[in-house]
Amino acid sequence: MCHMSACAFLSYVSIVFMKLVPLQPIKSRPQFLKIATLSVVFCGSVVGGNISLRYLPVSFNQAVGATTPFFTALFAYFMTFKREAWVTYAALVPVVAGVVIASGGEPGFHWFGFIMCLSATAARAFKSVLQGILLSSEGYNSFIFISSSSALPHFFVHFSAYRFCFVPPLF
């Protein structure tokens, strides 16, 4: 939460007062929806990661998070039809295989936690690909993304933190 607040505040200061990049106001509803989608995906990855920590050890969570490059390559291929070199895909095989092996031997393994962790990892990768598409095709600058996409997740993170910290789980 502090990270998002600091990003929003410092990017606003950098744009408005320091004038590092020109101010790009949101001009249309489709532009707002694209930024809102990016914010919701980011928030989903944070919430999914936090939920998974309730059910899985941190070390296993980090191991599953190491598969983010695999999901990034997968989403980049399906969304932009951009193929990486075969060496890139070959380098991802041991990482994914290691997570599969670790999943079988993890004493604190929990299916729901694993699914949430995998979902959070995939959401992080999807956010990276979506952000790359928006930065290259729409002409946005990264400061606008930081300031705009930090405000909306505040609401979602507050709500989800309350829901999952103070309300008993359904399972």
Report on this model:
This protein has 171 residues and is mostly helical. The chain has one domain (2-166). It is 79% helix and 0% strand. The protein has helices at residues 2-16, 29-55, 58-65, 68-80, 86-105, 111-137, 142-166. Helix 2 (29-55) packs across helix 7. The longest helix is centred in the first third of the chain and has 27 residues, at 29-55. The model has no long low-confidence stretch (mean pLDDT 80). Its main location: membrane. It is a multi-pass membrane protein. One of its GO terms (cellular component) is membrane. Keywords: Membrane, Transmembrane, Transmembrane helix. This is Sugar phosphate transporter domain-containing protein.
Question: Secondary-structure map with pairings?
Answer:
Blueprint: H1 2-16, H2 29-55, H3 58-65, H4 68-80, H5 86-105, H6 111-137, H7 142-166
Could you tell me the mean pLDDT?
80
Cα(first) to Cα(last) distance is 27 Å
Shape: globular
Unreliable stretches (pLDDT < 50, length at least 5) are none
Rounded to the nearest angstrom, the radius of gyration is: 18 Å
Count of alpha/pi helices: 7
Range of strand content: under 5%
List the helices and strands in order: HHHHHHH
Portion of residues in helices?
Answer: over 70%
Largest sheet: none
Number of domains: 1
Oligomer: single chain
